[in-house]
């Protein structure tokens, strides 16, 4: 179940930066979030009390995380727009933005790890952080494999 859902998540992650229409991107991102939630539900295996405490925190996390995704999508679009005419200055700016987004994402996971740890338990928080990081790594690798290296 998890492998199949992760495969679907990867396909959505690849498709979303490539699509030109904003509505299509939003539909794919919505499907991605739905499937990611299903993967997390399976991976976390929460009881009723844990679930009641975890999911509101996760929805809060996901709202903040989607802002990071918006910035990442914009960065990929900027990369694509400048790909054939890339200057050193533009490349340097894109790399700095990419590093900043990675740091922002790690900071966000740390922040919500703390919230989940306090509201649920250390083990659930650790399992969530582990699953979230694994999903992000798979999506990152898939996106990186689809983006051409800088000329």
How does this model look, in words?
The protein has one domain (2-146). Residues 14-21 have low confidence and may be disordered. It is elongated and about 55 Å long. The chain has 5 helices and no strands. The chain has helices at 2-18, 22-44, 48-82, 88-119, 122-146. The protein has 151 residues and is mainly alpha-helical. 15% of the residues are buried.
Provide a concise account of the structure shown.
This protein has 151 residues and is an all-alpha fold.
Tally of individual domains: 1
The H-and-E topology, N to C, reads as HHHHH
The description of the largest β-sheet is: none
How many helices? The count is 5
Structural class per helix/strand content? mainly alpha
The number of strands is 0
**Which parts are unreliable, with pLDDT below 50 for 5 consecutive residues or more?**
14-21
Structure keywords:
single chain; 151 residues; mainly alpha; 5 helices; 87% helix; 0% strand
């Amino acid at each position: 179940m998890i492998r199949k859902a992760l495969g679907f998540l990867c396909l959505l992650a690849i498709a979303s930066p490539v699509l030109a229409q904003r509505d299509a991107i939003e539909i794919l991102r919505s499907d991605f979030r739905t499937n990611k939630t299903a993967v997390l539900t399976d991976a976390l295996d929460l009881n009723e009390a844990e679930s009641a405490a975890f999911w509101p925190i996760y929805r809060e996390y996901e709202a903040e995380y989607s802002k990071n995704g918006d910035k990442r999508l914009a960065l990929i679009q900027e990369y694509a727009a400048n790909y054939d005419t890339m200057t050193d200055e533009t490349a340097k700016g894109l790399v700095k933005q990419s590093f900043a987004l990675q740091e922002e994402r790690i900071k966000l996971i740390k922040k919500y790890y703390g919230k989940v740890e306090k509201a649920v338990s250390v083990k659930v928080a650790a399992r969530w952080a582990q699953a979230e990081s694994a999903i992000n790594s798979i999506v990152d690798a898939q996106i990186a494999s689809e983006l051409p290296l800088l000329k």
